[in-house]
Every structure is written in structure tokens, then in C-alpha cells.
Amino acid sequence: MRIYFVAASIVLFLSACSALRIDRPLQVASGLTSHLVCSGTFITGLDPDRVYAETIRPMRGVGLFEWALTYEVDRQHRQVTTSVAGAFTSRAVYRDGMGCLLLAQDEANDGFDAKPIEPGAPEAAPPFGSHLPDIAGPAVVAASDGKLKAAVNRAFVEPQQPPFHNTKAVIVLRDGKIVAERYAEGYGTETRQPAWSISKSVINALVGILVKQRRLTLDAPAAVPAWAGADDPRRAITIDHLLRQTSGLNFVQDNSGFDPDSHMKFIERDMAGFADTAELVVPPGSRWTYSDANFLRLSRMVRDASGGSAADVLRFARRELFEPLGMRHVTLEFDAAGTPIGSTFMYASARDWARFGLLYLNDGMVGEKRILPEGWVRYSSSPTLDTGYGAGFFTNLGTGNVPQWGVPWGMPKVPRDAFFARGYMGQYVVVVPSERLVVVRLGVSHVRGDDVESTERLVAAVVAALQGK
pTM for the full model? Predict the structure, then answer.
């Protein structure tokens, strides 16, 4: 008890120093731990201590206060409670079909706008893609080619010293069929794994479907009530600007715990509402800056256009995207306002991510049915300004490095027509049209640049192994 009293005294003293605002990163750390341990335990099915050790402990800065951080997993009520030095408490509660909802310790969860929805809830009609051949049978597909097998196996080899790659799944899909896959211990073909920013590419798809249905317009103003004032320059921001990360909003994202992005995702209850407070610093369309705020605003637009509630979003996403693609093991998480956290928090199996990549490999088609608007894949994979970023996807057409990360825009050793969904800690869905190929790599890597360089080596080796076959 004494150590926590001392720790609390230190924390309260530092919190009083408004210039430091040390209270903010500590509350962020509490919320992040509750959310990630909850999701890893009740969605992915891992031991919570493994989730903490692999995902949270290696994060920058955690070592400074880890001695004061405690988390408690309540399996009966399916929730995780975290505190730092006996203060800065948060709680994440699991809800069937909706993942984990982050709450303050004393906040009730009965005010959330949607009731739990079972993942297998039937729709009124069977999905039109249900008759299509699946990408693989129930068993893990071992590579029959020696070079391909070696390429996949190398992705699981670890260096002697950290940072480690922690590869959890690799899938190679060619011509609509899995030709190789491998999983880490404790993972399998149905394990739902975190997408992090691959979620942005799913928002790209949902926005595309709404554009196709004429419920959203790509080049029209985003129609955000907070930006609607006659003299508000943010009125000029379009959906295209948000998708391409050129909104011009001032919303720093550096994962320090002090930044607005961390505050938004791990403290705020209405994330999109918080994103709406960002001010404009450059004209929309003039500068690229990666920010989750853009995709939280898009997520709110998806919510509103699909019916206005979390339940409406789930029904819409399942009917229009997940079920036609055969994505059977998906969890989309929401904030307390019922907005999908489409910048970050979606879980799905590696096979489901392969099915998602196949949609973009096939130009937005599933069989004979068009899911995405004609030309949407080309639009999504076309570079923005002088960058290698498209619209919710990274392209292989940029030169130089990503300013915020100091790593190449794309994968120089991979065919130039490749483009990919990319997520924190090394989540990738790489589409290579010229090779009729989708490669999925998922992991818990703390290597710089989301481990893009080792993923590039994996995809290059896969391409080399399959060429001429």
C-alpha cells in the first residue's frame, strides 16, 4: 500500500503542474491498457498477461510508470479495469458482437446507444456471395513449393535482441485461393486479430459503398454540423480530403500520450465529436498529414448515413461488405456515442483480411456482383499530392520517406503496381495486381515504421517464389 501512496502523491504533484499535464498520458495509458487487454482477452482469446507483455509493455514510455500500473480482468462481467498509482482509473467492457467499450471507472454502460448484437445474427436474405467458392478449406494450407514455404517461414524468424517482429499470421493468396499460410502458437484460421489502421481501409470500402448508393458524395463538403458556420473555413473540407488525409486540420498524432489523437481514442467518449474541434491550419487539399481524426469523422458519417446507430452500422457493414466477401470472423468496435472506431479498432481473422484484399484485387467485384463503385479501387490506390498515400491505402508509387515515420512510402522491392492497407505494429494486406496476389501479414511488432521493411522482404520473396508458376 505504501508504494501506491507515494506514487499517487508524485502523480498528484505532477498533475498540478499544468505545463506538464502529466495527468493526460497517465489517463491515456490507463484507457489504452483497459481497451487492449479487454479486446485481446475477449475477442482474440489470448491470456491477458500475454496481451500486456507483447502489446503494451514494449510501447514507448511505458517503462517510466509500469511499476504503478495495475489491471484487473473480471471474466464474470467480461471487463478490464486499470489504474495508475491508484488513480487515473478506466474500465473496458466487452459486449457481444461489438467488442470492448472504454468507460471511466464510475461510468455506467447501460447508456450506450445499441444493444449487444450477436455476431451470427441472421439477415433477412442470404448473402449473395455465399455460393462462391471459398479461398481455402478448414485446415491450414501448407505451401507445396519449397521457395514459397521458406519465404513464409522466414517471416517468423526472430532476431537475438529486441525489437522483435512477433509475426502472428501470414497468408499468401493467389488467383483467389490460399497457397500458403502459417500461424504463431495460440493463433489459427478463425482467430480475430487487431487491424489497427487497416480499419481505415475498411472505412474506405464502406464510404465507397455509400457513394455507390448515392448516400454520400465524394467531392461534396463533409457537412459536419460543427463546421457549418458561414465563416468557418472547415466548411470546405470534403470526403475526398478526409480519405486522402489532406483535410488541413491541426490534430497531432505522435503516440506520446500528450497528443490529441491519444486523448481522442483513450479518454474521450465521443471520438468524432472531439475530432470536430480541430482547427484548420492549411487550406484543405494542400498538405498531407496522417491523422486518425480524419477517419473518425468519416466513421461518424458512415454511422449517420447507414441509419444513425451502432446497430445500423453493423447491419449495413455485414449486409453490404462482410457477408458478400465471406468475412465470417469480424468485430468492429464502437465508442460510447455509437460511432465505429474506424481509424483503429476492428478485429478479423487473417483469412478475412485476405478476403478483403481479394475485393480490391478484383476491382471491387465479388463474383459477378459489383460491391465498390466502378473506378473506386483505382481512385483508392492513386497517390495524393507528392506522397505515396492514396485514399485509405498506401501505394507503391511514392518516392522518398513518410515525413512522420522516416521509412519509405511503399515497398521498393515489390512490383510497382502494389498497394496496401497498413496498421500499427505491422498489420498488412498487400495487393499486387500484376501477380494476381494478396499477402496478409499480422503481428505485434515494435519495429519502426510498422515493420514495413520485413514485410517488404516477405512480399518480394513470395513474388520471386511464384513467378513463372
Answer: 0.93
